[in-house]
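seq/struct pair 1
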Amino acid sequence: MTTSGTGGTTGEKRKIAILGGGIGGLTAALDLTATPELREKYEVTVHQMGWRLGGKCATGRNPDMFDRIEEHGIHGFTGAYFNALPMMKAAYEEWATLDETDYGPAPDHPLATFEKAFPPRDSSFFWELHDGRLKRWRIYRPPNGLTLEDAQKFGTLASWLKFMKKAFAQRPPDPDEAPSPDATPTQPRDEVLDPFLDEVEKEIGGADAPNAPCGSGAAKDLDLGTMPDRLKQPPCAQKAEETDAERRDRITRTLLEVILRGLMIDDIEAKGFKSVDHENFADWLRRHGAPEDVMASPLAVSPINTTYQYPNGDYTRPPQMSASAYLQWFLRGFVTLGHAFYLFAGGSGETLVTPIYAILRKRGVKFEFFHRVESIEAERDIVSEVKVTKQASVKRGEYDPFVRVRGLHAWPHTPIYDQLENAEALKGVDLENPYADLEDIGERLSLKVGEDFDHVVIAMPIGALKLAAAPLGRRDADWRAMLEGMTSIGTQNMQIWMSKSLEKLGEVGRDPAGGPWYFLAGNYRGGPHGHADFSKYIEFESWPADATPKTCIYFSGVLQPDGENAPSRSADDARAKAECLALLKMAGSQLRPGFSNPAATASPFPMDFGLLACPHDESAKGLDRFDHQYWRSNTYPSERYTSSPPGTKALRLDPLDAKFRNATVAGDWTDFGMNVGSFEGACMSGKLAASAIEPSLDPARIVGLFPTKGDAPETAKEGPHSS
């Protein structure tokens, strides 16, 4: 007797093939092996191209550059990662039980606990372009006393709005000054915003059930017909003259009023965010009365810049983002678990991926590194075959993916060739390039349904699927529409190491949690428009004792122009270098006063490139020192960022209804409600994929799905659960 019509006889473990070792696939593996009972039920194998896991969170250590951490971009958690934060906390608790032989943390491991690995931050700042110059707009969100175990409290839109009111009742006295640890977190009631929020709370009303669907009766439906007149009024007007603090307070109050009023006018509580997915965020904001200066503010634009919402990577064109995705991402800035941010004490690979890999391996999950998926085939309504190129063979045993650096199990920036057959030939091949010619090296494999897998989790990025999933598009109209219509964009990353500390470079103030202000993207456009301080990572690198950098800053953004199917990244990397260098030349001294070269006051390019750390070649001068920093383009299909333009919800595949009976999907290109590319989004999607396979994994455990009446989470309509 078969359990699904696709193999897996009663009494035998069902074989789950997960295609892709990014966060969506790893999350699905975590959920499907979460208990001893599930581990007895499923045999899980992760197939990953190349030598490292993590997708866009993958990192590499470069031994030729003092084991520096090299990443795809800027990564960090906000306090609104309601699913990712608890998942990582649980992963760290399990990881702590592993022996060092199983890649567990040693007693003196610097990232041994969640608390060590994810230091909190309560502040950030935007860059505001005003009167022709960049100004810092500081944001401070005091800790709200919630813990990660409180995530389920954010299961309804009503609960989000209530917590937003609490957040604004705890604004610091002066948003333009760095708060001291002893400062009171409150100020007098805002004469405009606070009464408005009072009215909103009255309208919301009701007691929220944990994770209850919106419109389920757990909270009062928001009805425009009964909305008090106060909530229908336009936002407050701009004064003739305003200080920076007054302008920012007005913009904040106005934008919040516009969004909260719009949620009620459009009856989002009952109709769901999906009802405005077709509308561009800017059109939605204007429709609800947002003034143009508010629209251009960093508070309004930051959700666009931090999620790269520029068509085809072209930042000279107006950004496009679904109002549904925009609103959910924006609102998450005010509803947090304890702190506004949880940063990573080490690189993304070591902090996020290493513990997950270690515990999955200990649970019995198999990892097939160097498996490049070429084609996913289907017969009728099942996935029948997965064609794979085995890029490399291990000499003996299983592949050990780690190098040890500063007590960490770290991911190298190239394969560990000593473990591989045919190593010399492999050194000339980029194993993360799907177009790389492996004709004389690779081995062709065919994974068959009923033999190698019973179910498949398709967890590859959308760019890669456009190459590998064409057979599914020929079988199913929804797959075809998704492959043709979903878009992704190329991005770029720059990392610079500097010889002066942040304070000497012009940093002002300290976060009450103990670190410097965490700076984010501003409202200026350009390639690497977002940047953040990652100086903490330096202690986990191997710089010379007498020449250790004091600061490391990451820059990240879209890459223009954007070529989608280039056979190599060399031209894209050169373009990324040019854009990053141009940013430092033209704006470096504005971003940090200490970046300026005091001897070049007459120069149009006052950046002091002598500040760039270059201990391996101290003879390098000026611009030559930039050549020893790190930059990259992310334009291979598996590296591209999934964008969220209007109308794409209809194109995204639902993990609970993936169209083929023995398949589900995972990744931030799927439909997981919020539909914004992020670790949190991939985590939500991975959890949905696990629910599609295992009936006991209730989708209602996933926070932030926000279904509406008659649209509550449910198990797959027909598929992996079916007998």
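seq/struct pair 2
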Amino acid sequence: MGASFAHVCRRAPEEINRTSYIDIKRKAMMWRRKALAPLCMLIILSLSTSANTLVHLGPLGSPEAAGLVSQDTLEPSSVSVDGTIVDNYANFSYTMLYDNADSDTDREVSWLFGLQSGLRLSNMCIALHDRVYWGRVAIEQEAIDTYNESVALNETAVLVTRQAGGYQVDLNVRNNTEAVLTVFIEGLLTRSSGRYDLELPISKQAPIEAAFDLDISIVSHYGDIIGYLVHGISGFSATPVTHGLRIEYEDMNTVIPSELAIQYATERQTGGSQLLTYNNGSENFFVYLLAPTITEIDDVKRRQFVFVVDTSGSMGGTPMEQAKIAFSAMVDDMQQDDLFNVIEFDDDVQPLWVEPHQASTTAKTEAKSWINGLTADGSTNFYGAVVDGLDMFTSGDSTKVMLVLSDGQPTSGYSTDPDTILSAAAEANDLGVSVSTVAFGSGADEGLMANLAAENNGFFAIIEPFEDAATRLMDFYRLFSTPIADSYDIEFTGASEVNSLQPLGDSPFFNGTEVVVTGCYEESISISTSIDYSTGPEQYTNSHGTGDTDKPHIERLWAQQKISCLLKQVSLEGLTPQLKSDITDLAMSYGLVVEGYTALILTAYEVTDDGEPAPTTGSTYTTTTTTTATTTTTATTAPADFAPALLLSFVPAIIIGAFIVIAILALKWKR
């Protein structure tokens, strides 16, 4: 879609100006002054006890001394998270201070910035020497080449690429430089199980110890905030603001928790729909949110589950243990009126029972015992598992859901051909079962499993090897574990384009979640939705003329979901030149980082007299280099005729000298 304004830089440079640079510098100075007094006291106490410390060092050349290794890594000395959530649209930033002022060499760091579904990294900037440099989107390989060229020149640069599980951020900080990196994140939070979650995963890979502050405001115009929870920190403050609340936290030195998150719920717990629009001067965009009624468990449709788990040899070890934990928890979650069965498959297909059982306490106990006794062995009869699983369902007034987990390719059974398997599943699914699939690890046939879910009104998910699979499986299960309607139907009038990652009809509707649809329309749009709840039918109608002009994030949400739908099409049909062009063009136009297509690159070189970056010179590399310098201290054994007393006499001097160096560095840090 052609827009009338540029989209490459989603954040205008004036959003980060000298004032914000001074603010972060002032905050860093405050933390440093607070930390200086205890540091000086530590030096004095250490000098006064150096004689006792010698007892614990052991003789030079001992295994204890030889094993000393220090990592010359550059970590942020302060981290700040600031932003807002307005009507569930999150817009926030991480600001990190990297101090390389006392080093004569450039320093490089790398981390994986995991973000939840619906959020994206929209831009970044670096403040250096009172000047702000902004990122730009480029073709992925070109961005990688530019970054590696910057590293070769010992210049400050940042590269952001999309990876499985998040964004890979590579940062190189020039020698004798203090850099302030700000990463901007935005996106829509959707309700799951009645609540909204905002994950703040700055330290997912490894703990970060730094000065840390958090300032997030939550504003809701269509329902009061009735409850909230902050995971990972205590001692925060929560104060009322207009239509919401503000959560603040500050600590001058803390280990930033890896599971930092904010959860909240609003009064909007009844069924309803919301239509948001935006006009950019030439086109109308919309986002349609459909939120089902939050019901008591007694109002939930009767459920019939069949859980199908791959027990082939590749599932051995951790994957199998995590699958056991998750599937046992799913069995525990069922209500007494539910029907269920469990199937395990390798080269053979083995159900727990010949027919589904009611979820009584006895049946649950038997099922969990059977699940915990499963072992991994054999090949993968995917065809037999899917067909036998669908044949296990019985007719009747219940919502029918099958969950299939596999970590491999079909290698045995009647057929291993994906098209044959999909055709057989369609023929066997005469009761309208919603089939959801989980690809466990990179070895699974993602195309087959995604198509199986798409063609049978189900959900599809990929769980990477490094993830907590048991937790992810349970989160995925909750998407479809509480159906409150057999089906729903959405009709669009006036829309020229509709994008949805979920089926929009003839599929179960689940408790406490939201359906998100984006698209474009000409002059006006009308949306009619009907849902046959277990408590009776309901209808919602929304309409709008020319789009509003004060919600530019609606267009960005459209672009983000449009690319997600195109990527889903790639997974189902394979990559074509047209799909590749469509994804790349859209990502470049809207500043989106898409794995395998685009990346975000920032370079901070010396500028010319007219303020433009100076031309780049130097070698170009074809791969990202993210090595970290390592300094290893190795002690050698003294000759036998060297007097131990003389050797020990040097140790206090070495210790005192080291503390003097620390004191000097601390004073520089203060400046």
